[in-house]
Write a structure and sequence with these properties.
By secondary structure, the protein is α/β, with parallel strands linked by helices. It contains five helices and five strands, in the order αβαβαβαβαβ. β2, α3 and β3 form a beta-alpha-beta unit.
């Protein structure tokens, strides 16, 4: 009986070890899902200038990150035709470069309406959404985006 119990313990220990090693191998082999981040901008050109640099740094550290920039209020200003940063450099090149790297830009339609801004003045890389704050909430709650406010 003692030999049977020893054999059974050895068999059980081997099964547990094999299962653990298999689970670790599957975890190591499975590629990690990209981190999804929403940058929330509502404070104007200085905030947008910081955000552009933060996003560049973010993508340099993690090129697989999925980044969305959601704007409302004064946060939309950098996405309007002719917008310049605090050094009077156009935002157009930076927006185009980031969009080519997969960054999505969203502009609040409520802001466009309340400020009487023609949607045609919004950068072509940006998509107009009904509400900026609702888009931030949707991305967080339904899409699993992490919230950042530069």
């Amino acid at each position: 009986m003692f030999k049977f119990l020893t054999f059974f313990k050895t068999l059980l220990l081997g099964a547990v070890l094999a299962t653990t090693l298999q689970a670790q191998a599957q975890t190591a082999a499975a590629p990690a899902a990209p981190i999804k981040v929403v940058y929330h901008l509502s404070d104007g050109i200085p905030q947008a200038t910081r955000a552009i640099q933060n996003i560049r740094n973010h993508l340099a550290a993690d090129p697989t990150a999925k980044i969305a920039v959601v704007t409302h209020g004064a946060g939309i200003d950098f996405l309007l035709d002719g917008a310049t940063n605090t050094a009077q450099q156009s935002f157009a090149g930076a927006i185009g470069d980031l969009a080519s790297k997969g960054v999505d830009f969203f502009v609040c339609n409520n802001t466009l309406v309340s400020r009487n801004i023609d949607p045609a003045k919004v950068a072509m890389e940006a998509k107009v959404v009904p509400s900026g704050v609702a888009e931030v909430a949707r991305l967080q709650a339904r899409e699993g985006f992490v919230y950042l406010r530069p």
